[in-house]
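User: Run a structure prediction on this.
Assistant: Running it now.
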Amino acid sequence: MTAVIVVIVIVVILAIGLWATYNGLVRSRNQVDNAWSQIDVQLKRRHDLIPNLVESVKGYMQFEQDTLTRVTNARAAAVAAGAQGPAAQAQAENTLTNTLRSLFAVVENYPDLKANQNVVALQEELTTTENKISFARQFYNDSVMTYNTKIQSFPANTIAGMFNFSARQFFEGEAADREVPKVDLGLQAPTVQLQQPAAPVAPAPAQPPAPPVQPPAPQQPPAPQQPPAAPPQQPPAPPQQ
């Protein structure tokens, strides 16, 4: 009886683990699909704006038909790549982005186009759409990374193989967007000049000590002064007769 209970408990635990793992994989896969739908909406929005932009600038750019043709062909290729998966569409969209940049650079050479409100509005809408595509691409790639990690980890990889959970492709941006920009401020590191250590100075020989100072000789007391000599007395004169 005890063995039967143990087997039942083990089966229940395995069933719960299988159920939890399967549901986790389903949630991750649905998140990837939802993230891709957000990218798809923004891509279609961009594809719809491009013909309007081409029509707005075509009358001014009589000598730039080659640029307009490249934009039109790149858009058609991007639309057709939608059925080939995220990797193929990412490559086509990157080509389309490059052709749009070339078109915007040419527009800068036409003052009338720069002042055209319709062209300016279309450029702003395309720029906004590009930013939304960037954010949606980041969310989608993060979701794909999480999902692919789950289906490759044990024991989820066993369940993923049983229920046909396959890896998803990333929607990669341009190589220039993935490169870390190199900032050169033109500041050079200061050159530090190492001074050679000075040669040790030999100590000067010690001078012999000076002889002690002799005390001054005692002064002799002054000699006593002699009293002045008395003048000699004259003899008295003889009496007169």
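DSSP finds seven helices and no strands in the chain.
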